[in-house]
Amino acid sequence: MKKIIKNGTIVTAADTYKADILIENEKIALIGQDLTDPSAEVVDAEGNYIFPGGIDPHTHLEMPFGGTVSKDDFETGTIAAAHGGTTTVIDFCLTDKGKPLQNSIDQWHAKSKDKSVIDYSFHLMIGEMNDSVLEQLPSVIEDEGITSFKVFMAYKNVFQADDGTLFRTLEQAKKLGALVMVHAENGDVIEHLVNKALEAGQTDPIYHALTRPPEVEGEATGRAAELTGLADSQLYVVHVTCEEAVEAIAKARKKGYNVTGETCPQYLVLDQSYLEKPNFEGAKYVWSPPLREKHHQEVLWKALKTGDLQTLGSDQCSFDFKGQKDLGKGDFTKIPNGGPIIEDRVSILFSEGVKKGRISLNEFVDITSTKIAKTFGLFPQKGTISVGADADIVIFDPSVERTISVETSHMAADYNPFEGMKVTGQPVSVLSRGDFVIKNKEFVGKLGKGNYLKRSRYGELTSSKEELYQK
Ligand SMILES: [Zn+2]
Description:
Strand content: 15-25%
Radius of gyration: 21 Å
Number of domains: 2
Shape: globular
Bound molecules: zinc ion
Number of helices: 13
CATH superfamily of the largest domain: Metal-dependent hydrolases
CATH architecture of the largest domain: Alpha-Beta Barrel
Distance between the termini: 38 Å
Helix content: 25-40%
Structural class: alpha/beta
Number of strands: 21
Strand order of the largest sheet: 8-11-12-13-14-15-16-17
Largest sheet: 8 strands, parallel
């Protein structure tokens, strides 16, 4: 059915203006003043902003980790995402060394297709680079539309790839038109520091942070950036947390290397002291890389403003405190890494970023949606309010004040890391390809309604590569 969204203020990465939107056949058909169509359902958005649906470039739904599986799957995870104003997620498909890549991709399709309530896509983890993997990559891009490859520089003996694999992946990505994403921490040094801590009987959650200090993130980020320059390739650094890593990215960008970076809400508003909470509650705040000392937060905010960091991902990877996080009691290395973030990503950036004057409204849209669509080959189908784009739309009340809590959250985990945090602004209604997924804050979507998105090659949809890595 056709819809007209009336009286809202449309906000894109470039403009802010009042206009009506006509939606037809899943797309934005017309934008203009005083639109009328007797056959259309009228949605009144008076007093609200109209944003392009948020895109979360970094999720781990139903992901096996350390003998357990992340709590939110493609059902609860995408419902929570929609409540939070996100209409597309890109999840990481993990692979097993020595096994066909397609096996892993098929597994990810199997767990998402009947559940996802919003559109979704996959990145592919590259654990090793050899002739067999090389042969498989063209079909991953061509048939699956997976145009971003993730390389882990940490998690020794689990996900970690060596520098040769990273470099060859960068070379292949350039050749094939893909983007390389790195988890940048020096896994070898971390392993040594972790062993030393355990030998000294240092087993509490805080040692998770102390054994992976900012220097190991800064070093790995700089190494990946230099290898990108050498390969003349393109790099996206996931979950940047600290000044050392921001400096490495800024330095590479100054040299003209095509290096971009993402941060996450937890690093913008939470800090290392949370890991010292009593009664093992510090385990709720175990991410890799870890939360940092507070002074890093302003560096991250500034980088979002200047464009040395471009995007905000959630790194959604939730575990219950009871029954999952507590696997690490008496040994911090056994605490599953990650947290429930997907629902609060957009609201936290709006409240802490826009409302507190750190970024503009248009920058907020760019950071949570537009730049992500451009970077990952989805623009302008996703990431903007323009004629012909998918009608992925968030109707957002910028004035409502509320407190984040596990009680009102739609994520499956038994705690919320932002518990008690006051935020201003909330999505009221959310549309995915023209249909309501959230209507007046209630979920009205359908399981399996989300489409799998094949993405374009890196840079294919934009006029120039410069546009992608410059702000
Ligand atoms: Zn992650």
